[in-house]
Amino acid sequence: MDCQMEGPADYVHISQNEFIHRKHKKQKEEDIAICNCKFDVSDSESSCGEQCLNVLTSTECTTPYCPCGAYCNNQKFQRCQYARTKLFKTDGRGFGLLADENIKAGQFIIEYCGEVISWREAKRRSQAYEKQGLKDAFIIYLNAAESIDATRNGSLARFINHSCQPNCETRKWNVLGEIRVGIFAKLDIPSGSELSYDYNFEWYGGAKVRCLCGAPSCSGFLGAKSRGFQEDTYLWDDDDDRYSIDKIPLYDSEEDIPSTMLQKAFDLSYLANGQLVVFSEQMANAIKDEMVDEKTLGSEDPQKDLCPTSAVTSRTASGKNQLAVVGRISKKKSMLISGFKTKRTSNHNDAEMVARLLAPVHAEELLKKEEMRKEAASQLDALYNDIRPTIEEHEKDNQDSMATVVAEKWIEASCWKNKAEFNLYHSLIKHVAFSPRRPQQSKDVDNNEEKTSSRSAEMMLVGGLNHLSDHEVTTYGSMFNPVLLCSKYQFPTRSVPLTRIVASRMGRSHG
Ligand SMILES: C[S@@+](CC[C@H](N)C(=O)[O-])C[C@H]1O[C@@H](n2cnc3c(N)ncnc32)[C@H](O)[C@@H]1O
After folding, report:
1. What are phi and psi of 82, to 5 degrees?
2. Which of 114, 127, 373, 410 has the most CB atoms lying inside 10 A of its own CB?
3. What is the spatial distance between Cα 14 and Cα 124, in angstroms, rounded to a whole number?
4. Domains in the chain: how many in total?
5. Which of 162, 213, 225, 273 for a ligand 1 pocket mutation test, highest count of atoms within 8 Å of Cβ?
6. Maximum distance among all Cα pairs of the chain, rounded to whole angstroms
7. Is pLDDT at 45 greater than 90 in this prediction?
8. Is the ipTM value over 0.95, yes or no?
């Protein structure tokens, strides 16, 4: 059925999803869910109402299998049983959609239609839209593999704006074997009210978009509730004098922002199953640069690790100024909070350098452990690339649990890598910290050499351990609880500082 509606000219109205990278699935007969409702003319709820098994599982009935036949009330997507809505021009938020009749709580309002595209295509398009300077983006994250892009072709649902106190919500339904996204009323909506839902905008870096929803509980920015935003943003009140706002440019609306900044400020939004995700330049880079240069990440000068700072101010409902500082965080941190895994290439020469200081038999063992660690790390990285879409969907979409097989694979590879790392560092400690004290050299030159070797061995060992805990947090923080090997495993010498042990074993005192 075609559900025609008019709209602005810069997009093509469609009333059904268009499948770009594959055909519409053909529902197999054995997959068709048949409810046990019975149509009773005296009871309107009898024909697939709230108690219908299919309704309860967000699955539409399939004609001609539904026992209620033409009376079935559970084919709203298929029959385009939309509420009456009307486009209007908002003040500062582009177009919006109004209820053109009274809408009841729970009522299906409209389907979010667009082009069904693969995850890769969504990523490609998002970056392309950003380059083209498109201000609004309309890509809904459907599942791990696919998204709906309503940028060029879409239904009127694409015009529904975000609100921090929305009257609608998105819901996913299984319709004839395909997942479709609908906008549903959260509460009774009087005719003439603007429709809105909470984008659950996930902020992944870049500039922040001021939210103009006007709700008393407005969080100030799109995505302000997201973990990335909160970790990246420091909010403080008027009377907090830690930072001077004098030199900070004040941008009250998108129009005020200079065009150079606008390019950056315009973060392509990515609608993810009711979650708008910012696709920014930074995020694109995070995807592209899967390898983050260790030198940049770990440079000794902390200033070098800082992202450029920019700031905007906003006014809270209480009338207080809030200052949001954007950036001023290390690149390492911004990569971590971006939710995008960065393959951190550690200085693997650590083990090799320590090995040079050890007896051949110990050096060989250490190098073997290092090889195993490298292999486990690269296996985990390879696996991560394969399952990244699933992981990201899981992180964003609380409705779906991650497929057990994916989780198991990941846990197995992570444990394998953790074990390899533990073995390596155990070996380091064993051979460096517990190797017999080296005889004191009599000659100055030997002494100096010994001191240098001792110092580097100590630094490498401690550096290695620091690296380990840092790496674990960076690697796993966003997915599972951080696995902190250092605190988990009890080294036999835990009551004595490692540096002291190393120093004493290597023949130098430690102050
Ligand atoms: C899915 S579109 C909504 C339709 C859009 N207003 C239009 O005219 O095409 C999402 C975009 O609308 C704007 N928008 C939606 N809700 C907003 C809000 N509460 N505050 C500011 N801008 C908003 C943002 O530019 C966002 O990227």
Report:
1. -90, 160
2. 114
3. 22
4. 3
5. 162
6. 106
7. no
8. yes
Q: Whose CA is nearest to atom 15 of ligand 1?
A: 161
Q: Please work out whether the CB of residue 269 comes within 6 Å of at least one atom of ligand 1.
A: yes
Q: Quick check: 300 pLDDT over 60?
A: no
Query: 391: domain range?
Result: 346-505
Q: Which of 181, 219, 222, 273 has most ligand 1 atoms within 8 Å of its beta carbon, as the pocket-test mutant?
A: 222
Please state the separation of Cα 461 from the chain's center in Å.
34
- Asked if residue 358 and residue 294 are part of one domain, the reply reads no
Ligand 1 atom 27: the closest Cα is on which residue?
Answer: 136
Paired sense of beta strands 18-19 and 115-118, if any: parallel
Q: Whose CA is nearest to atom 4 of ligand 1?
A: 159
If pLDDT is split at 50, 70 and 90, which confidence band does 221 have?
confident
**Cβ atoms of residues 215 and 333 within 8 Å:** no
Q: Are 394 and 496 found together in one domain?
A: yes
Q: Where are the alpha helices (DSSP H) in 210-359?
A: 227-232, 259-265, 281-288, 294-297, 331-337, 349-356
Same domain, 231 and 367: no
CB 159 less than 6 A from any atom of ligand 1: yes
Asked whether residue 151 falls in the same domain as residue 237, the answer is: no
Q: Is 266 a pocket residue for ligand 1 (Cβ < 6 Å)?
A: no
Is 495 found in the same domain as 412? yes
With a 6 Å cutoff on the Cβ, whether 71 touches ligand 1 is: no
Q: Are residues 83 and 152 in the same domain?
A: yes
CA dist 168 → 187, 274, 387 (Å) = 7, 11, 32
